[in-house]
């Protein structure tokens, strides 16, 4: 029996590219990778991947790229420069999937997208609504926040001994990008007709900032304390660092949502789709110990 044709959008990005690599490693055939610049994925083409051009600002290109596709992974775009732009891109992709005859869509979303106060969550909520209304079979993968940024985002805390944020006593079920990619690849291969699945993709436990500060301090060999401030103070700190206002507001809104518990849910999605437990925060920190310890010098 022939394998289904599987398309991955954003294959030039970190998550999309890793999913394609994992599908190849798992022996999947009929893999299609899309990007705005196909020449950037020549190495995948050499491995037998069908590399196609797709531009989320050009719906006709999306429909053309989706021709003959049975399953598609829609990786959420990073078009956050203008309110509504990312929503428009995603909805164009969903319409193109319907027109092209795609049977199954997987989408990378955010936990509690419909109810959270995170400013950029509206893009995910509207995309989820469009997918549910499309008639396509689907799996919505609500990925929690990446721990991958820790080596950089935690460097100031290591240097100063203070982890400053507006998360309060809220916890995050931090996950690695690798675990998200493993779950997405597994979900693509496990998809079956009639699926209507929405699942949080999370790390193994919720971790508060106080707990994170303690783990970090033990790793680098110095005391690090959590200092809780207001979301307004956090926004001012982000702006003072030179961060664009839209991004700063989004970052501050994440802290507020975390304080309310919006990102603390834990599921077995990684174990279910990847066949192994997700990486813990402690393990991830240990893997990046050298970088984090360097920030203390």
From TrEMBL:
- InterPro entries, per database record: NAD(P)-bd_dom_sf, NmrA-like, NmrA-type_oxidoreductase
Task: Give every NmrA-like domain span.
Answer: 5-254
CDD domains per the UniProt record, alphabetical: TMR_SDR_a
Q: Provide the protein name.
A: NADPH:quinone oxidoreductase 2
Q: Give the organism, scientific name.
A: Labilithrix luteola
